[in-house]
Amino acid sequence: MLRRVPLILAIESSCVETAVAIVCGGPGRAAEVLASEVASQIELHREFGGVVPELASRNHSLHLRPLIEQALAHAGVTVAEVDAFAATTGPGLASSLLIGSTAAKAMACASRKPFLGINHLEGHLLSPFVGHTRVPPHLALIVSGGHTLLLDVGGPGIYQKLGSTRDDAAGEAFDKVGKMLGLPYPGGPEIERVARGGNPAAFDFPRSMLHDPHLDFSFSGLKTAVLYTLQRQPSPPPVADLAASFQQAVIEILVGKSLKAAQRTRHRVLAISGGVSLNLPLRAALARACQRARLELLIAPPDLCTDNAAMIAFAALLRHLAGESSPLDADIHPNLPLV
Ligand code: KG4
Ligand code: ZN
User: Fold this and answer.
1) Ligand 1 center from residue 272 Cα (angstroms)
2) Lesser CB count within 10 Å: N end or C end of the chain?
3) Pocket around ligand 1: residues whose beta carbon is below 6 Å from it?
4) Which structural domains are found in the chain, ordered by start?
5) pLDDT digit string (tens) for 26-45?
6) Are the C-beta atoms of 121 and 335 separated by less than 8 Å?
7) Exposed/middle/buried for residue 55 (C-beta within 10 Å: 0-12, 13-18, 19+)
């Protein structure tokens, strides 16, 4: 195969998704995702009501090799044609991160090609720009199971933290409230589903820190308010109303803080990423607010919102094009910060 642009193979294994992707792209050209394979273990962990780290790493090692072969076949390329190998090196579960990063390093070592260790959060942050020719200065909101982060982005690799959660992440709050309401793991999509039949104004839950001048978030008070309200309800409790009212509070907090950050930074583009950005009422509320404030809203396509390797390959491609690589003895970092 004749190729003019670098080809990157990336592995994501920070939590319960084993993922392999192959992306190609050159300077000033939109990156192209040639393959993006994901094997989710969510079903396996559901019976435990959350993630079991030992189970996660064992399943990553079972799924990884067939997924790599599948990705190469879908992309129509051979390992020898890959220009650099990348993997998520943090944040995430230590034993899971080790599986993906060791595999990517082994391939890089055997092929005598560079290895790139990528921050999972940088993958999410850049995911709305896969398929774009450049990453412009913008305001970024990452809302995932482990993080809620507002960032001032000057360009690839130029990140300044504006605010983050002081306790639970937005996705974590969805998951914990889902569990309280007796919904299956993960709670986010389940709350969105049952909330469709509920009244978002039924319960007036707190919008913690919404009117504080800083740009940090707090979701644990909201979670506790749902718990206490639930305990006062008759049996069976009004799950749809509780879910809809909780979801509405999260949406108002995320939208309010994002707009405050946009005013402060004067950015004209808001890019939102991470699993919670799949939430349709959140997307609709952000779209309305951004239209009123004349902000351009960018949200990654659904398959790039939850954990995937295409976002890791894209982040690695930008670093590879900038001449960067990581040493083969680069460690994994379960609590790796982005900034
Ligand atoms: O980005 P992600 O796949 O993994 C992490 O890096 O954490 O995000 C997973 C989180 C979970 O907390 C899940 O409940 C939440 O995203 N999520 C949602 C929705 N879909 C997934 N939250 C709200 N509404 C959804 N539709
Ligand atoms: Zn993630």
Assistant:
1) 13
2) N
3) 15, 144-146, 171, 174-175, 186-189, 192, 274-276, 278-279, 306-307
4) 7-130+305-321 (3.30.420.40), 138-299 (3.30.420.40)
5) 988 999 999 999 998 888 88
6) no
7) middle
